[in-house]
């Protein structure tokens, strides 16, 4: 199933169904050799799924030495290790058959790959059987030339029901975040990028951003049209701090077709030094629009 009714409704509303069908031909179930090679070079994988107990949707990072994510079959990847024991998605990855979306993003080459499927625990981590595998264009991806792996341990997570002043500043300065959504048959993880300020903090409990023009598939907005649950992940690419948010999101459509997504925070989890990776400073994508004032 390339597109469900939610994505089709958005495509039809914006008059892009024919183009979406053309782009959708690039979606498959198999992991091609070039995709397998790409995965094997990555030190970071982002997951999106729903907590089986609360139903809350979260986006979570997993890191390891290149090779920790491997294609182990025509439709399967295996991940060595996993999320931290206190990560909101730890229960989901411990269950059999959890719908999960993944995105591997390489700032060095401005390439990204998405694989959506169902996860199962393994003795060394977890495996995912793919339902959909596809790549996206480099639009709105910031280039970071290199990274180094540091010997640092995560500090205790801070949980709250809205953003603190420092977290609001963190979001306002971000040039990248990851967005997890779900639908009846699965889950998806995607990327959003722009110049700092592209995400607005409208209040301690609400964020908003413009939905920039993309590939017209509208997988994320399609999911949100049917199920408003969503999870956001912000990374500090230097300090390794992560900010995970769960809540609900909705899309506002202007008469000219421009779109704004509004996200309402239900819970926030900030983990200082969560990731051992420190990336070089970004070169912003030339496709980034100037943030609205």
UniProtKB/TrEMBL annotation:
<dbReference type="InterPro" id="IPR012349">
    <property type="entry name" value="Split_barrel_FMN-bd"/>
</dbReference>
<protein>
    <recommendedName>
        <fullName>Pyridoxamine 5'-phosphate oxidase N-terminal domain-containing protein</fullName>
    </recommendedName>
</protein>
<dbReference type="InterPro" id="IPR011576">
    <property type="entry name" value="Pyridox_Oxase_N"/>
</dbReference>
<feature type="domain" description="Pyridoxamine 5'-phosphate oxidase N-terminal">
    <location>
        <begin position="165"/>
        <end position="260"/>
    </location>
</feature>
<dbReference type="Pfam" id="PF01243">
    <property type="entry name" value="PNPOx_N"/>
</dbReference>
